[in-house]
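Supplementary Note 3. Input sequence used for the single-chain structure prediction.
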Amino acid sequence: AAEVLGKKQAIIALWHNRTFTPCYVYRYCIGSKIPMSMLTSASKDGALLSTVAEDYGMRTVRGSSNRRGVAGFRDMLRELKEGCCMCITPDGPKGPRYKSHAGVIRLASVSGLPILPMCIDVPRCWRISKAWDGFVIPIPFSRITVVAREPLYVPAELDETAQREYMEKLDAVLAYGR
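The predicted structure, written as discrete structure tokens, is reproduced below.
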């Protein structure tokens, strides 16, 4: 991922059930080369993920479509203006699984930054079946494949139809890592 991003900013998109992996990838593959901030929900689960992400050297923004939506969006824009990349799960915080919400598309449209879809394949894992997303926890010492896809550039002005089309494009590109 560091080679893909270089020193450039991007909005990194990955499925909600893969959020265990980016913290590790950030710390050991990207490190301090690129400041990274992760959007986490304003819930108790989000607080846990926020703590883990910060332990791995990432910054966090709290908010979601359900809670603190406007404030979270404003905070993400601030992080981007400060030079951070933003890591977002387009299908979070409550799904449906593998279906993007409009927030990531709007963020790319307003900020002018591309979305960098990160496909994460974890063939040997445990899944939390009671979670809406089937949360994935890699089995220790298993191999994980992380593939950065081509950046998705979103125009500044979007109507609702175009916004849905970009959501569908992102879903299709991220389909590899399911």
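Strands lie at 11-13, 36-40, 59-62, 85-88, 115-121, 125-128, 135-138, 145-148. The chain has six helices and eight strands.
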